Amino acid sequence: MHEYCESFSVSLTNRYVCDLIYLLQLQYEPSFIEDRLKLYEALKKEHDALLAYRAANQSKPIKIILTDGKMTEGESWKTTPYQLAVGISQVLASNAVIAKVNGELWDLDRPLEGDCSLELLMFDNEEAKAVYWHSSAHILGEAMEGYFGGCLCYGPPIENGFYYDMYIEDRGVSSTEFPLLENRCKNIIKEKQAFERLEVKKEILLDMFKYNKFKCRILNEKVNTPTTTIYRCGPLIDLCRGPHVRHTGKIKALKIFKSSSTYWEGKSDMETLQRIYGISFPDNKMMKEWEKFQEEARNRDHRKIGKEQELFFFHDLSPGSCFFLPRGAFIYNTLVDFIREEYHRRNFTEVLSPNIFNSKLWEVSGHWQHYSENMFSFEIEKETFALKPMNCPGHCLMFAHRPRSWREMPLRLADFGVLHRNELSGTLSGLTRVRRFQQDDAHIFCLTRIFLLLPCFEATTPQFSLHLLPTFGFVGCNFHVIFSGVFSFWFVFLFNGLIYWL
């Protein structure tokens, strides 16, 4: 018997172990969930009574203009967008993600309050997609809360999917736990839990979320009104502006694909949170297409190619700083030589500027007031210094270190200086987001009264950029010119060219 048990335990796969853990954890629901639900049920009872009163005593005929211009009728505080959609077509009602009432996103089951225009949005609409992924984030949040028992923070939709942040003390998230969370999400979806909306007084919500210091911070720091909205699906109740899909069953395919650590509101001196990313779609075909695209993207990933071709690599002992191997260094230097030749062709003079500057310079430039938390700073002989995150202030010192003649104008300076930026570890991503890099920076110092008579503008962008970008396969780029300050001290930011008007 002992030998049988031993062989059985050895033969268990990680997946079976995960399933056993999942079954065990179902028995230990966080205690705050029950307390939160009791308060919610009391509030929901009041809300339903108020809605019933309005439907009985304040309802009146209303006119609703549909997307095609046709007008239909309804009753205020009774008629919902979903009911109108069913009246048009059951397929339309089934496929609609969210409604838009008088230009405002609106829950499909929320009663209309007066005359309005009505639009029904499908998943292919960007606003509807954001709502769909926001609702999916709540499903993930419910699964995370039940599994980890931590404090949920933010759970927004993003460009491609959604994420939820959670504070879990002294614990990380492993990819081996993704199947467990996905199983929970699938169960939540099968239950078709309705999304319910309530508007509640701020002081009541502070009591409801007293177990979660992060939600209390949001209420105290972000909510400037006497009331705000919460949404419920199943046991999850969360601060949320909404709107949401009708019920969790609308999410047909959901996948958890990544986790990382982050800081509360991106501040490195605050609590460390665990962030879990997901994606969802209204059918499995779209999910399979997404998975195929992700596989192709992984095969094209520059980090994978760089390692396979021995071009470069990254190491945990220097996060965000690339190690260029001989082949990579050759390509790197070839690119520098190419840009250097283009600079010389446009009469730029190459300079070298220091990497470390006293914080007094950054105070003058404004970096210290607005960017200091993204800079690497340290003390030397009781003075604060920082590694430069950009070359601009150093070039200003170069220009100002002696009197200049108008004959020197325009003065074109180019620099391949090494820059450092204190990016959060969770945001680092290969060569696209780093802490140490070199930037081909160019600045033009020019007199305003003769600027229009000189080819300064041609020497920088858009001509310079339009010449270079197609070389690397970038086409259809847009340029935005920004003017700030008084006319005599304009700063014109154009691509990597910066013109100083004197």
UniProtKB/TrEMBL annotation:
Q: Which Gene3D superfamilies match?
A: 3.10.20.30, Bira Bifunctional Protein, Domain 2, Threonyl-trna Synthetase, Chain A, domain 2
Enzyme Commission no:
6.1.1.3
List residues of the TGS domain: 60-122
**What keywords tag this UniProt record?**
Aminoacyl-tRNA synthetase, ATP-binding, Ligase, Membrane, Nucleotide-binding, Protein biosynthesis, Transmembrane, Transmembrane helix
Q: Which Pfam families match?
A: TGS (PF02824), tRNA-synt_2b (PF00587), tRNA_SAD (PF07973)
Mention any one GO cellular component term assigned to this protein in its UniProt record: mitochondrion
Gene Ontology MF terms = ATP binding; threonine-tRNA ligase activity
Q: Which reaction does it catalyse?
A: tRNA(Thr) + L-threonine + ATP = L-threonyl-tRNA(Thr) + AMP + diphosphate + H(+)
Q: What is this protein called?
A: threonine--tRNA ligase
Q: Which organism is it from?
A: Accipiter nisus (Eurasian sparrowhawk)
